[in-house]
Amino acid sequence: MVETQAFGTVRGQAVTAYTLTNAHGVRLTCLDYGATWLKLEVPIASGWQNLLLTSPDISGYADLGSYHGKTIGRVAGRIGAGKYAQALPANEGTTTLHGGPHGFSTLMWQAQAQADRLVFTRHITSAEDGFPGNIDVKVTYTLTPSDDVLIDFEAATDQPTLFNPTNHAYWNLNPGDDTIQNHQLTINSSQHFEVQANKVPTGELLANAHSGFDFARPTNLADALAIMQTTVEKGYDDIFLLTPHTPDMPIAKLTQGPRSVTMYSSRNALVVFTANAFGDELNFGAKTSRPYIGIAMEAQTASSAVSDPRYGDISLVPEQPRHEQIKYHFDY
């Protein structure tokens, strides 16, 4: 079943919300602006509980610097100046963050709703987003009968370019207005990337063991964040290198009480961000915006791959389309 609802306007363009519901009553809602994952609602005794941080109206998404729930690309994460052969548009000092000032998250997409999936497509020119090459992109959200959400990212290009997309959903599994500090997190990782002051990775790896980065076993986020209070950010905005794994092996699991989300991806990195400096200028409806109100877990290829082939390949070349998938399974 597919339902549609008007969701305001962005820069003169009407935005539509599309909702899918499976046989268990799980509901997935997306916007055509930013190909945004708006809600993931699971059935509870009193109705539904949304597991994502969601702004109640389009004003929360219209700012070009807002990322919650949005599709991120062409390249997720940060690319430092000079890391790529061609100069890329910067939007964080000299750094290109999340596809730059005109990335996927800032665009209107063409939507097609089907019984179990929402398909968003976009032709993006080099003149539009500042990356080399014109690309055709498709982002498909599928809600399965077994309470999985699959996000498939596909792209083809007419010139060599980059493609390393992700989704920037923020999770909070609490039924009430509590932070993620009462959640447990597990990550299939033993190393994380050293970063410079501008958060661009140096290319060197650091061990997770015996530090606040060790999530090899289920770890209380309150305890982990307490360790991180000695850092500048007092939380996480970090890139974990995933242990070699097959696509059917979980890369991360977030749990609070009976609710959990388990992530799967064939790629080699997970960026974790714990909303360290969120203030009350943001509006998440029933969840009060403040530090640690949500956690973003962004599966991707390590951003160091842009200049270091040891960490993967994020190139997209003519006649060789690319496809990446992130899978989420929900228990509630």
Automatic annotation (TrEMBL):
Q: Which UniProt keywords apply?
A: Carbohydrate metabolism, Isomerase
* InterPro entries membership: Ald1_epimerase_CS, Aldose_1/G6P_1-epimerase, Gal_mutarotase_sf_dom, Galactose_mutarotase-like, GH-type_carb-bd
Keyword presence, Isomerase? yes
Q: Which domain of life is it from?
A: Bacteria
- One Gene Ontology molecular-function label: isomerase activity
List the Pfam families.
Aldose_epim
Which family does the record claim for this protein?
Belongs to the aldose epimerase family.
**Listed name of the protein:** Aldose 1-epimerase
Which organism is this protein's natural source?
Lacticaseibacillus baoqingensis
